[in-house]
Amino acid sequence: MRMRLLICAWALLTGMCAPLLRAAQPVTLAVPGPGSLNYLPIELIKKIGADRAEGLDLRLRYFSGGPLAVRDMLEGYSDFAVLGAPALAEFAARGEPVVSLAAVSRRPAFVLMVASRLKGEVRRVADLRGRVIGINSSNRQARSTSQQMAEHLLRRAGVDPDKEVNFLAAGQTLEEQRAALASGAVDALMGDEPFASQLRKEGVAFYLLDLHEPEVSRRLLGGDEFLYAQLATRRDLLMREPDKAARMVRALRRSLEWIARTTPQAIVAQLDSPDVGSRHVMLDLLRRHKDLFSPDGSFTREQLRTVEAFYRANQTAEPAASRFAFETLIEPRYAGLRTR
Question: What's the rounded Cα separation, in Å, for the pair 300 and 59?
Fold first, then answer.
């Protein structure tokens, strides 16, 4: 260490140590949350120093849903956004200059759950006809992935999501989703983990469908892999600052690779939650479902095929969007595109 410092001091005369002394570049990322299992790799970037390793100083901005996060990015308040691929596609299909840089997850950690007061009345998805369903955020012009998931499941059960149910924004935190269910504001909820497991544990709701179980995801979404959470940016930033995008992808990759080689106990130890019960819920989820995250940020052909089929099938009101090709949404030069 002493020798390195001496060499660095001498090298200051020639500027050779500039990379070591340069201040980290601030970078801002909009993300739903906080605390969602879907976006755990993003929250861990700062905690494990993956941003500093790439010369970045990551700052997170939290929102109640992906469409709000990407809108923040498009308006220039954030450099990047992380959200569900189907929600990002809503913007791309309307001509917004968005591009996906890397995959965060391979399956969506969503649970369709029902308020406990309806235990005897709602036994299947079709029983939600005439009910109020909570989603992360509600906007017909820019539907969140949770809304698209709910609409997909309703259509499969023969329920018209445009005419036979009502959607209500229920937020993307445990407190918001608990209040929506417990107050009776919503009858059911397309909930996030770990909040869904916590609400079931508290007796607030019961599970109707668990989409992060591989066999359920395969049956209802059409494949073993589904491009859900992914890192996105604006095309103008990508053209103007390609190095910033490359370093952000590398920081994400560091986080994903750290998760892949780290025990669930060590991962939970990095989280801020002081609540012992919540930490136990997250620990149990990671023990069973750590493989829902991408191992390295790369896209796969199966992910794109599955999410494209899902998205197109749910574009009943937008014929042009029903032909949207997901390969036009991604820029694979940073994270890569694999056949499997």
Answer: 28
Give Rg (Cα) of the chain: 21
Decide: helix, strand or coil at residue 140: coil
Reference 266, options 290, 248, 246, 240; nearest CA is 290
Q: Tell me how many degrees the CA angle 79-84-89 measures, rounded to the nearest 5.
A: 85
Question: What is the pLDDT at residue 133?
Answer: 97
Helices 85-93 and 301-313 sit at what angle, rounded to 10 degrees? 60
- Give pLDDT, residue 33: 87
Note the pLDDT of residue 141: 67
What's the rounded Cα separation, in Å, for the pair 244 and 185? Answer: 43
pLDDT tens digits, 30-84: 999 898 999 999 999 999 999 999 999 999 999 988 999 999 999 999 999 999 9
**pLDDT at site 322:** 76
Using CA atoms, how far residue 305 sits from 169, 322, 323, 337, in Å, is 29, 14, 13, 13
Domains and their CATH numbers in the chain: 14-106+226-338 (3.40.190.10), 110-210 (3.40.190.10)
Four-residue CA torsion sign, 151, 155, 159, 160: positive
Rounded to two decimals, what is the model's pTM?
A: 0.88
Q: Which two tokens stand for residue 27?
A: 């970078």
Q: Do the bridges between strand 229-234 and strand 98-103 make them parallel or antiparallel, or are there none, so unpaired?
A: antiparallel
For the purposes of burial, counting CB atoms within 10 Å of the CB of 109, is it exposed (0-12), middle (13-18) or buried (19 or more)? Answer: buried
pLDDT digits over 291-320, tens only? Answer: 999 999 999 999 999 999 999 888 866 666
Is residue 14 predicted with pLDDT exceeding 60?
no
Integer angstrom CA distances of residue 205 from 76, 137, 167, 180: 38, 20, 18, 11
For residues 242 and 48, give the distance between their C-alpha atoms in angstroms, rounded to a whole number: 24
Q: Which is it for strands 205-210 and 80-84: parallel, antiparallel or unpaired?
A: unpaired
